[in-house]
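Have a think about this chain, tokens included, and walk me through the fold.
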Amino acid sequence: MNNQAEAVVPAYAAGFRNGNVMHRGEHVLTRDEEAAFTALVHRQSRFVFRVVYAVLLNGHDAEDAVQEIFLKLYKNGAWRDAKNEQAFLARVAWRVALDRRRAAPPTESVADPDTAVEGASHEKSPEEALQAANQHAIIHAMIDALPEELRLPLVLSASEELNSREIGAILRIPEGTVRTRLQRARQILRERFANLNARRRETQHAG
């Protein structure tokens, strides 16, 4: 959800290499398989990061989860048989993220979405040259502050390859429930963004 997502294609992708092949237990990956797996990491790491971050809400934990996910895929080779690549990766990422959250000690989460939004909205340069970047941060703060049951379908829906039925299968909820939660999440974001803009206009008029 931030610049950490840009760094999720790290040296571990290249680190899987061992000479001209990649080893997976008794199996040896050919050059073509090695290239296909490396391309998978580069192609889908940002998407996997977004999924696990939506559960963990911590950039460093999400990075660790992404590495764990791709290492598991490398070892078991299941990635090669995936018919819908993103749906498959989303299911794997969802399970890994949930397991990590259950194993982690409890941490405080954002209880008030307005607090997160206001905190992000104050991060402006004197000349407001970073207004666009600031607005991007605000939107992500709003998404992070959504209840998990609304946040996760919204994050998954950002993928053009996942429809409501597939999101429902990943989260194990009915397709109709996915649509309802997506509508609710988008409604909340619209309302909060409108409220934020109204407060900004009031501040400008007051000044």
User: Anything to note?
Assistant: The chain has two domains: 3-103, 113-206.
